[in-house]
């Protein structure tokens, strides 16, 4: 009886330092690629979730088939403004203390009606029995889901805008960037400023005139009150504030009030 030969034992391939370095390098590149993709996704998400008001969101929805007419702004005797706009054959009219605020309120009503109509128009998925052959509706369902996702992506920044606005109104955010109560009155130096208006003051910008008459004036900006930006300044120990639809307009209106009160000018505030 001849003995059966033993199978030859497999010799494990030797691992060199170069092979280990190559594996580590591949893993490092893979981790770096995954980290870069994640960071890019987070940047895109932060950008897409940036708070936006209804006016901006409606303008972004123009590419999705929504039709928006030009605004019609009417001035009211009490100083307020009425904005009228037509969105998808529906007319919206809102009144506010400024033109921009009236536009935003009208767009909020239009966006709300548009979103609710889209949500109500969503088809319900039919109940199917396992044994019955039903016609395929995958294409219709995918199209509807894509439209719904687009609408929700547009509504998300507006929801963030409304949420932050509500929190600010309830006082969860600091209402003022600089507090007038804590601000020290400005001491006017004897050698600074002018006593007489320049000869061409009527053609000058109010802020420029105020800077010439009282150099070193610092403007203070506060959080938006409803839809308006508030700004303030302390001149000759007087606290003067004004509102505007933006920081630029609010700054001009503060300068207008200061010049009219202190120097007897007749500048007209902006909207």
UniProtKB/TrEMBL annotation:
<dbReference type="GO" id="GO:0030422">
    <property type="term" value="P:siRNA processing"/>
</dbReference>
<dbReference type="GO" id="GO:0005634">
    <property type="term" value="C:nucleus"/>
</dbReference>
<dbReference type="GO" id="GO:0005737">
    <property type="term" value="C:cytoplasm"/>
</dbReference>
<dbReference type="GO" id="GO:0003725">
    <property type="term" value="F:double-stranded RNA binding"/>
</dbReference>
<dbReference type="GO" id="GO:0016442">
    <property type="term" value="C:RISC complex"/>
</dbReference>
<dbReference type="InterPro" id="IPR051247">
    <property type="entry name" value="RLC_Component"/>
</dbReference>
<protein>
    <submittedName>
        <fullName>Uncharacterized protein isoform X2</fullName>
    </submittedName>
</protein>
<dbReference type="GO" id="GO:0070578">
    <property type="term" value="C:RISC-loading complex"/>
</dbReference>
<dbReference type="GO" id="GO:0035197">
    <property type="term" value="F:siRNA binding"/>
</dbReference>
<keyword id="KW-0694">RNA-binding</keyword>
<feature type="region of interest" description="Disordered">
    <location>
        <begin position="121"/>
        <end position="148"/>
    </location>
</feature>
<dbReference type="GO" id="GO:0070920">
    <property type="term" value="P:regulation of regulatory ncRNA processing"/>
</dbReference>
């Amino acid at each position: 009886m001849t003995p059966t030969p033993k199978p030859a034992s497999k010799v494990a391939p030797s691992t060199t330092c170069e092979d280990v370095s190559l594996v580590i390098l591949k893993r490092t590149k893979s981790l770096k690629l995954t980290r870069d993709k994640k960071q890019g996704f987070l940047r895109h998400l932060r950008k897409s979730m940036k708070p936006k008001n209804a006016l901006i969101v409606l303008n972004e929805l123009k590419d999705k088939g929504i039709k928006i007419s030009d605004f019609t702004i009417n001035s009211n005797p009490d100083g307020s403004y009425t904005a009228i706009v037509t969105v998808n054959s529906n007319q919206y009219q809102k009144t506010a203390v400024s033109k921009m605020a009236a536009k935003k309120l009208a767009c909020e009503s239009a966006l709300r009606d548009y979103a609710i109509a889209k949500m109500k128009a969503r088809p319900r998925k039919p109940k199917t029995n396992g044994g019955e052959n039903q016609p395929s509706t995958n294409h219709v369902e995918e199209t509807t889901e894509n439209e719904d996702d687009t609408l929700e992506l547009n509504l998300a920044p507006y929801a963030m805008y409304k949420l932050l606005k509500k929190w600010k109104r309830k006082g969860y955010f600091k209402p003022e960037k600089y507090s007038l109560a804590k601000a020290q009155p400005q001491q006017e130096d004897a050698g600074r400023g002018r006593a007489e208006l320049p000869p061409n003051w009527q053609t000058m910008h109010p802020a420029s005139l105020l800077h010439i008459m009282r150099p070193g004036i610092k403007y203070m900006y506060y959080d938006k009150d409803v839809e308006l930006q508030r700004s303030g300044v302390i001149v000759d120990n007087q606290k003067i504030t004004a509102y505007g639809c933006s920081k630029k307009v609010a700054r001009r209106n503060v300068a207008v009030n200061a010049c009219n009160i202190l120097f007897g000018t007749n500048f007209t505030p902006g909207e």
